[in-house]
What we know:
Blueprint: H1 7-11, H2 29-36, E1 43-46, H3 53-62, E2 67-72, H4 75-84, E3 91-95, H5 101-107, H6 110-114, E4 117-123, H7 128-133, H8 160-166, H9 169-180, H10 185-198, H11 204-214, H12 228-239, H13 241-250, H14 252-255, E5 256-266, H15 269-284, E6 288-290, E7 296-297, H16 300-305, E8 313-319
Parallel strand pairs: 1-2, 1-4, 2-3, 4-5
Antiparallel strand pairs: 5-8, 6-8, 7-8
Helix pairs in contact: 9-10, 9-12, 10-11, 13-15
Bound molecules: S-adenosylmethionine.
Amino acid sequence: MNWEYNMMDLANDLPGINDIPSVHQPVLLNEVMTFLDPQPGQFIIDGTVDGGGHAAAIVERIGAKGTFVGLDWDKQLLERCKKRFVGQSNVILLHGNYAELPEVMEKNDLVKSLGRADGLLVDLGFSSEQLEASGRGFSFREEFKDEPLLMTYDDSRTPVYQILREESEESLANIIFEFGGERASRRIAKAIKDHGRKNAIKTSGELADVVRSVLSTKYEHGRIDPATRTFQAFRIYANGELENLKTLLANLEKIIKTGGKAVIISFHSVEDGIVKRAFQSLAKESKITIVTKKPVEGTREEIKNNPRSRSAKIRVAQII
Length: 320
Ligand SMILES: C[S@@+](CC[C@H](N)C(=O)[O-])C[C@H]1O[C@@H](n2cnc3c(N)ncnc32)[C@H](O)[C@@H]1O
């Protein structure tokens, strides 16, 4: 594992307790549509289609002659999304990891029939549906406390309850520190292991209670739940989120045709830093032009209407 990230990168950009909306709204939709600029007849890929919020706007723009491919690693969400686009033969919804997009395109004969895409959208992380309706233990909130502590998008990944059992105390502390920016990582890791020796942690509520037992109720002046950073850390680690992102960025030219754009939305500065550095090195190699010199953020109005957009940042590159 690579422990290169700085904890302060993650420290200030977590959503507050009341910032997760219960109905999913696509973030920065206007900005996405402006940068991606889908045209009638084009071939657009959404690597994180989820409930199809951005997808619906893209599908409308490319029209019946265009092709939309939506990928998601979460089978349950993909099934829901299929219902939204039923009867639309130009909408292809596929299960898979965006880190494997070139292979997914090849396997589904997309390259042979359509070539590379005119544009790619990736809206990183997880959605409110996963928090509130997946039953996979993503949430530390009281009402979801009995959910099994999986926190994985796909069953191929090791669930968090197993990670807690198998990893050493030191390794757990490193995960919590590195991917959660949590200063109390060592104390939390010790409490997890101490608890696990008597009673294995199996549910999201059990993990949240162990974290809360270690941290003060005045944690961050009540701005965020004490379990926020630990949950974020295990979600990122369990799904290999940063590795997936790096692989996707290394594959852009295999996915998108010359002149096509990659629009990436990230939610914390570690992700944004990975996108920024990958774009810089691809630009140096003359493989892309960077369209957004600085990351683009939501307008005040957007942030007011959709709290999830508060920490969202868009970076865009055009393939040369
Ligand atoms: C923030 S949501 C996307 C929301 C979507 N843009 C919309 O407007 O409805 C992120 C989605 O990415 C999916 N996801 C996370 N990691 C993934 C991966 N490596 N490959 C494919 N999908 C992934 C999650 O399952 C989730 O559905």
